TrEMBL record, chains A, B:
Keyword line: DNA-binding, Transcription, Transcription regulation
Native source organism of the sequence: Nocardioides aurantiacus
SUPFAM superfamilies: Homeodomain-like, Tetracyclin repressor-like, C-terminal domain
MF (Gene Ontology): DNA-binding transcription factor activity; transcription cis-regulatory region binding
Portion annotated as DNA-binding: 48-67
Entry annotated with the keyword Transcription regulation: yes
Chain spans, region Disordered: 1-27
Pfam families: TetR_C_24, TetR_N
Transcription listed as a keyword: yes
Record-annotated HTH tetR-type domain positions: 25-85
Biased amino acid composition, Low complexity: 1-19
Protein name: TetR family transcriptional regulator
Length: 218, 218
């Protein structure tokens, strides 16, 4: 449970007046951030707009000043996570190939694993929400479809690296892709940004473990 | 969504009569299995006993013939997953140490990773439910506490293996434990028992990737 708001708390009439002036108790960004925290704590389906209003200490109408529905908050958060992840994967895919003097597919895969860890950390609440989406509505189904496209790009990157002969061949590219990015995704279950491990260190260590394993090299 | 039941479907009066005879439309095991499927699909909090009764095509009283509450179904499923996982970790911990002619900690860690994959597959719905528990009730908090104890045993196994000098030392034992078992846990997101990969093959491949990494060895 998050502790009660310590920010500006406005009663219904004040916030409605503020809404008309375009300055309600919270800006859209704050409403979105707190909504995503609540969705992650209690589950999206179990959280009502009334719960969010209570948590923020404002009226429901103050929330509807910013968004038309609870689903719009979900859609915004999922879009934030998906846009960041998609950009990272595309950046890797758009890099010049080794055959034309650029980086190898294996180097690009390594960079993508590290970058996906950093994005997960930078957008932790939004990515956490994304990873819990089950397809219960058109908004969730659209997010799952965008995830599938990203997963396919990642799987292609793994296949390209395997074709270079630098990845072990006793595991399928599909399984490697699922396990490596499954490891990255599992970070949402325990990583907290206020811990001792910096995002860059975490990215380097996850990448090292994925590529080299936990055994000492002979 | 699961498709409608093809099993025995009894109307309220029939099942109530059957309940009095001790033979309702479904046995406890089936009610539990279908409940866990529904919880995983829709979320535990979002699933009511009425939803479950509708899904099974029986009255709520037919369900309460078997269990006193929805929470009892949750507790049963979590206990199934936790008991299996705990037994696997204890079996590894109880094995004779290498110093007394038994297996090394690294061998025991390897065996535990493989066994945890097999348990996840054997108890997939119950483990999936366990991994989604957020501590929203005393039953959930008790399950999280049992998970913590298991996680501590796993972390100790990783430390013991590190002490043998067979694990890389640039990553902390705690991080290794979280990443390796995070990888195992991520299987619930995509593994389906009807696929082409057998539980034993999956266990072997996850273990190989965790210990040796995805790069070809030099």
């Amino acid at each position: 449970m998050t502790s009660p708001s310590t920010g500006p708390s406005t009663g219904p009439s004040t916030s409605a007046a503020a809404g008309r002036r375009g300055r309600p108790g919270y800006d859209r960004e704050t409403v979105l951030r707190r909504a995503v925290e609540l969705f992650n704590e209690r589950g999206y389906d179990a959280t009502s707009t009334a719960d969010l209003a209570r948590e923020l200490g404002v009226s429901k109408s103050a929330i509807f000043h910013h968004v038309s529905s609870k689903e719009e908050l979900l859609a915004s958060a999922l879009d934030e996570a998906l846009t960041a992840l998609d950009a990272a994967v595309d950046a890797a895919g758009d890099a010049p190939a080794a055959t034309t003097g650029g980086t190898s597919a294996t180097e690009r895969l390594r960079a993508t694993v590290a970058e996906s860890v950093r994005i997960l950390v930078d957008h932790l609440p939004a990515v956490t929400l994304l990873l819990r989406v089950r397809g219960n509505s058109p908004v969730e189904q659209a997010a799952l479809e965008r995830r599938r496209v990203i997963d396919e790009k990642l799987a292609r990157l793994v296949r390209d690296a395997a074709d270079e002969g630098t990845l072990r061949t006793d595991l399928s590219s599909e399984l490697i892709s699922r396990l490596v990015f499954g490891t990255v995704n599992s970070l949402v279950e325990w990583y907290r940004p206020d811990g001792t491990l910096s995002p860059d260190d975490l990215a380097a260590q996850v990448t090292a473990l994925a590529f080299d394993g936990l055994s000492t090299r002979d």
